[in-house]
Amino acid sequence: PALARVRLCSHVHVHTCTQRVDGGGRAMQVGDGIEVRRSREPGGGEGLFATHPWKPGQTLLRDRPLARLQAEAFDKEDPALLAKAHACLAEDGQLEVLLGSDAGMALWRGEPEDPRRDAFRRCVEDTWPEGTAEARARRAEAMCIFSFNSYMTQDGGRFHAVFPIISKANHRCDPNCWVVVPESEPGELVSARPVSEGEEVTVSYLCKADLLRPLLKRRALLRDGWEFNCCCSRCASELDDMRRFCCPLPGCPGTSAALREQLAGGLEASSCSSCGAVPAEAARQAWAERELQVEALVEGLPESLYCAWAPCEDFARDHPLHGLAGRWKNFIARRTQAEAHEVSRATSTFATPECSRSMPRAGRQ
């Protein structure tokens, strides 16, 4: 699935991408300071690399989409709507650009044995029986490209967009860049932190809320959605940085992190980062029980909001560096923004145009 990306910082410089990639595997300059070449990540294929340093908040490039697909079909999981959206793609010429251009042919389509290929083929056959075999195969191929390479537009998330260059950026759970996808403007690649010369430019395929999930769940999402095992520094660590518990000793500011490899029947955790104490079994058992309770409540949002409030607030206070605390606070912040937006709409008759704000699309919890 294509998930919304959040813009974190304003840009300083803008470089428009004008060249396209021929898929030949050679390094190719695609902007002032960005080139495409073979990634050093295991199984990464081609990737984007900085050819000079970038500061946080700079726009590395602007990239016009090859094609945009209406998102309603994905949101409703409706095969008929999906077929209709792809029919529109063919009618306005975007399908030919996506499948016939060098840039489109260079994009990843998944492994030949990927089960989603058969699912897309059956979807096309069921919803477009009058199409020729060749036309149906092309439509199913386009579905594969969107499945692996698209980003959801902001400001309502009405479209999925595939880019010739931005879509070639590889994933890390600690990315150095974010993708900004306006509905009617070129997409932007914006640096989230300093990027050194020669460093690979990486983005997150996961939304902000999913980046707060535990290591094994993040890797499962990436494996199911994009067919790879993430080997970034966060995923390769022996400690799960999203399962950090505050030291139970009074006055100690340190934390213990859950170990990557867990033994059956209990929570295994590192020694305290401050005092060095090894958490007792009773403390680890209490952590595990509360973690399980709060995780079930957070997964049940928004339906579980009222019964979740007190346990989630207490957990976030006691373990502020735990990923569940971040997901809970993220939900509350977005809910508050949404309610403020509704109030703004209700009172818009009396408000000046300058006070009106558009809301970012809400992601998964």
Q: What does it look like?
A:
It is a single chain. This protein is α+β, with helices and mostly antiparallel strands. It contains twelve helices and 13 strands. The protein has helices spanning 72-76, 79-91, 94-100, 102-105, 115-127, 133-149, 208-211, 215-226, 233-236, 281-299, 305-318, 323-346; strands at residues 28-31, 34-38, 46-50, 59-63, 67-70, 151-152, 159-162, 170-171, 177-180, 187-191, 200-203, 239-246, 255-259. Helix 10 (281-299) runs antiparallel to helix 11. The longest helix is centred in the last third of the chain and has 24 residues, at 323-346. Mean pLDDT is 83; it is low at 1-25 and 346-365.
Number of strands: 13
Q: Topology as H/E string?
A: EEEEEHHHHHHEEEEEEHHHEEHHH
The helix/strand class is alpha+beta
Radius of gyration: 23 Å
Strand order in the largest sheet: 1-2-3-11-8
**Multimeric state of these chains?**
single chain
Q: Describe the global form.
A: globular
What are the low-pLDDT stretches, counting only 5+ consecutive residues below 50? 1-25, 346-365
- Major sheet: size, sense and barrel closure? 5 strands, mixed
On the 0 to 100 scale, the average pLDDT is 83
Q: How would you briefly describe this protein structure?
A:
By secondary structure, this protein is an alpha+beta fold. The chain has helices at residues 72-76, 79-91, 94-100, 102-105, 115-127, 133-149, 208-211, 215-226, 233-236, 281-299, 305-318, 323-346, and strands spanning 28-31, 34-38, 46-50, 59-63, 67-70, 151-152, 159-162, 170-171, 177-180, 187-191, 200-203, 239-246, 255-259. Strand 1 (28-31) and strand 2 form a beta hairpin.
